[in-house]
Design a protein that fits this description.
This protein has two domains: about 210 residues, 3-Layer(aba) Sandwich (Rossmann fold); about 70 residues, Alpha-Beta Plaits. The two termini are about 40 Å apart. It contains eleven helices and 13 strands. It has about 300 residues and is an alpha/beta fold. Helix 9 packs across helix 10. Strand 6, helix 6 and strand 7 form a beta-alpha-beta unit. Helices cover about 35% and strands about 25% of the residues. It has a six-stranded mixed sheet with strand order 5-6-7-3-8-9, sandwiched between helices. It has a four-stranded antiparallel sheet with strand order 11-12-10-13, covered by helices on one side. The radius of gyration is 23 Å and the shape is elongated.
């Protein structure tokens, strides 16, 4: 079914020891797009993706990849799906390029191995065994193995984890090319800038279900800009918010992110900045730094999932 979505998850449930780690999760990932699945540790995103990859069986709901069931139609899907795991999945005793050539040999129409290896800088460690590779090198090799078979859908789990900036950019460029070629890409990452830069659609998962979704533009549409202020001595955040409400239209929210450091969220513009600085002066507070910028996907993510450690 060439017009079907790359991935459809409908009301997925997965339990471990009676506890639902995925609890009614639904999402759609289109072909020719990057769909980012974001969530705190333990939110259920990895388990959901593993159900899509056929590595786990759902306890409820349905999962379809290219219109097929990942478990019962596994033989049909394997040649059409690429999987990059964050950790594991690579034989540790084999040399890097030897492993990639072996994987390529399993496909009817693989990418040219040397060209792909050149793109991802694999030749510099081609004769090194996998166990001796750095974390970033393993990630590049795992990505190459996931895409060498020309998949129609690729699942990427933390694809640039442990990479230096040069490697990261090479990976991002390859992901963009895959998208332009019509590949459906499901990306799980803790790097919010990676999701913001690459994703066409974002699904934020927490407590086993999707709590927000949309394009990055849609998720940031109602996100006000922010000013970050560091002062000596500390201030009363509630008093600062109230004073700004009087001085300029809000709504305002002032949070003490660490002792003496505040994030002021609201319609930050020259008038509101002047009101903020005037109020700080009236409090006899010395401003040691003041930065202004639009809120990011990370800000939205923290608003949705909270700031407590999991």
């Amino acid at each position: 079914m060439p017009d079907s979505p790359a991935v459809v998850i409908d009301d997925l449930v997965k339990r471990y020891e009676g506890r639902a780690v995925v609890d009614g999760l639904s999402l759609v990932a289109a072909r020719g797009e990057v769909t980012a699945v974001l969530g705190p540790n333990g939110a259920g995103k990895t388990t959901s993706v593993e159900c899509c990859e056929g590595l786990r069986s759902p306890d409820g709901g349905t999962v379809r990849v290219l219109g097929l069931d990942p478990r019962s139609d596994a033989r049909l899907l394997r040649p059409r799906v690429g999987v990059m795991l964050q950790d594991g999945g690579l034989p540790t005793g084999v040399r890097a390029l030897e492993m990639l050539r072996h994987v390529a040999s399993m496909y009817a129409r693989p990418l040219e191995v040397d060209t792909l290896a050149e793109r991802l800088g694999l030749h510099s460690f081609a004769a090194t065994t996998v166990r001796r590779l750095s974390g970033g090198q393993r990630q590049r090799l795992a990505l190459a193995a996931a895409v060498v078979g020309r998949p129609e859908v690729v699942f990427l789990d933390e694809p640039s984890a442990g990479m230096d900036p040069q490697s990261r950019r090479a990976v991002w460029d390859l992901v963009r090319e895959l998208r332009e070629d019509g590949v459906g890409i499901v990306l799980t990452t803790h790097l919010m800038d990676e999701a913001e830069d690459l994703a066409d659609h974002v699904h934020v998962v927490d407590h086993g279900t999707v709590i927000a979704h949309g394009t990055t533009r849609e998720l940031l549409a109602d996100a006000a800009s922010a000013a970050r202020v560091r002062t000596t001595p500390g201030l009363d955040a509630a008093a600062a918010a109230a004073a700004l409400e009087v001085a300029t239209p809000g709504p305002w929210r002032v949070e003490e992110t660490e002792p003496g450091a505040y994030t002021v969220r609201g319609p930050v513009d020259p008038r509101s900045l002047a009101a903020l600085v005037a109020w700080l002066g009236a409090q006899d507070a010395l401003v040691t730094s003041l930065t202004v910028g639009r809120r990011t996907l990370e800000d939205v993510f923290l608003d949705l999932t909270g700031r407590n450690l999991r």
